[in-house]
Queue: 3 jobs
Job 1
Amino acid sequence: MELELRHLRVLCAIADAGSLGRAASDLGYSQSAMSTQLQRIERHFGESLFERHTSGIELTHYGAEVLAQARDVLAHAASIGRRSAAGGARVRQPLRLAATNSPVLAGMLVRLRSRLPDLALTVSSVYPSSEIVELLEHGEVDAAIAADYPGRVLRHSAAIALRGIVTEPSFVALPAGHRLRHCREVALADLADDAWFLTPDDGAGWPGVFYVACELAGFSPAAVHEFLGDREQLQKMIAEGIGVSVVQATLRPIPDVLVKPLVGTPLWCRYVLAWRREGPADEVADTLFASAAGTYRALIAQSTHFRAWASCT
């Protein structure tokens, strides 16, 4: 089989839908035709790209690598020769982007501007993911980076499309002099007596998932400081021993702060790309996703504590 762009679109649809049935419905195929198509694609690559489960399918490690490259190819293919009909001048396409507290935002914007230099981009910082969905639903933004949690998929109408960028473990940040500083992993229960810095309700499941994890570990947090602000300021307070905090796995710690995985990985967060189906063109959505995914891969490459955790799982 000669690989074509339509095959790459099939892979993306399956990965986005999480099941052959939903992907087939999205593309207008029968489920048997979609299954046959996937088998041919996997034969081309000589390796399985998805693992089948009763609840659906998920990417293999190799499949994730292929998918990231497929999205890059589709984004580049879509941008070839994009010009307006009048005078051959390039079109300035507006895009209003909202983003929650995500590690991928800065790098994603750099990649996006290099790939779509004629995009007229405006960015708004919006913390609650539930509010981001409302802005999308009301047409006040075109696309967004939002967050949700396993078992708590972000609620949205059929007018909004979601594509998972990454589901990452949540780590914990400790002061360098913490009593658990020598532990490779930290048990959540061992932090029962510590004060915590927690970001506010995001309308998508946080901090509820944190309190559930604490309850399962057999404790309630001794003290909680609600904090939403500068990450560097948060780390400075942690360094001073004022408290500990759940943090993004790729966070780059400042001096006197340690970032460690939690035993059993009780907390996970998923970052998603969301956009209005009647808003950005498919190629723009593909480029947004490829830019976000590429940025996350770069963050992992720079994160020694994340790579150490991944090598042991």
Job 2
Amino acid sequence: MSITLNQWQRARTSVPEVLERLLTLLDGAPPDLPATAHWTIADTVAHLATIAATDVALVRGPAGDPSPSVVRELRLNTTVDTVAAMNRIVMSKYTERSVPVLAARLRADVAELLAATEDVDPEREIIWLGGANLPIAGLLAHLVNELNIHAWDIARALRRPWYTDPRDAAMFVDLFLVGVTRCGYGKLLDHDRPVRPGRISVTFRAGVSEPVTMALVDGRVVLEELDPRPDVRVSYDPVVFNLMLFGRVSKARAALTGRVRVAGRRPWLLPEFMATMRLPS
């Protein structure tokens, strides 16, 4: 499950390419137009700016992290279920809402992030949310996904199209989810529900990348060798799959359009697996 040179190069080239398309989309956009149920376009760009700035700080290490101590503590103790609460606190402390100013900061931080990671090992791990260990390649894949998801929000608000390359979308599973699972996700998936004993194996097939098998074993998600007969097989269009994972497309719509298909020996176990391997929506 090592990170390939092609994956690393794609992550590094996709971040600035997607960012520039997003900034073009923002040109002339009304900053107070709602982009989501809770954020305007300006709020959404501010959120992306906090992510890019945080990524720079994480790559620099503790000595180069300018975040307030309360924010650093939040990052270490955040779970999937408390990401929204963390975002509210971060956004309250990051008050800039001028879209041109935010766009300039976002472009500068992305350039700094790429410069800081130019000669590093893509397998090098940083301490991410919830104390998770995340390879730097996974960090860039996460940023690509955030840019695409929120660009989709903004484009929808503006009634304009937004194109996400399926190979970019596939990196979210291939580099981010695989990376954080392989290296250790810390408190990120913690919950207070009863732990289901036993094993549920799920093989994910995007069609544009190699399939991967994950398993929920006695409450912990682990990576496994590719299972030819898993409990669940999920075949998916990675663009729609990511939008579904983050609540932009309903599960029913994804299934009815054939963009996400579930099969396998025990497909009814997928909700149990996803109750642990879940994402904020």
Job 3
Amino acid sequence: MLTEPRRRAYLSAMQVVHWLPRAELPFAAPSRPELLLPQAPVEDVDFEIRPSAPAASDAPAVPQARAERPKIEIPRPGSTPKVAAKPAEAEEAAPAPRPAPVPPPRFALQLLRAGSCLLLVELATGQPFQSRDPSYLLLKDMLRAAGLPDAPQIIGEPVRWPLLVRGNMDQGPDAARDFVQGFIQARLEEAPCSVLWLIGLPALRHAASADAEAYYQVLKVAGLGDAWALPGLELLMDEPQRKADVWQAMRQLMARWKSVE
């Protein structure tokens, strides 16, 4: 037996809109009374068939192209119309490129004490001084000529930069200068000095923020006092004519550390 929903589905599939059962169907919905009323008879209508008018031409009609209607966008409520950005505005909206990070400087410095002077010396090879190194022998000659002990005392381990191979710590030139100056200031608090010798370009840059133009001059460095700028030991050996300039400047400064003794 068919239930009423399935029966209606079958009738809808057969496109049957109105129907009346000949007998009472089980599980069927009650019949509607208006469907049981007798229907009026349909009158006969005569239809006259007339021949169609001849066509103007036997050529088949060509379909006309339908004109395209302009597409109009209707803004929806709550939406904002999109406006094309002007080139100038697009350039202003673009984020400014980040400056390229400055690579950390690379150097090795050794701090020594000779009498009343401190010496910050560039280690060209990055290794500590050895007793028979030509650069160390030249340094001993310079101290002997200055009237200072020619066996300087090595203070601490060499300062090597960068400190870390990896990591996010700032190791740029400014950080290197702060570190070197802080290291020297800590040694000056332990024992002051009359003149700080800065030997080599890295020592000049990171202790006094100076360059090669300051060679043979005495610089006033905040927190460090008087600093004497000198070329590196390797440069003095490669260019011996510079030793005359060192000796001339040394003669004018010897009174400063000799008076302390």
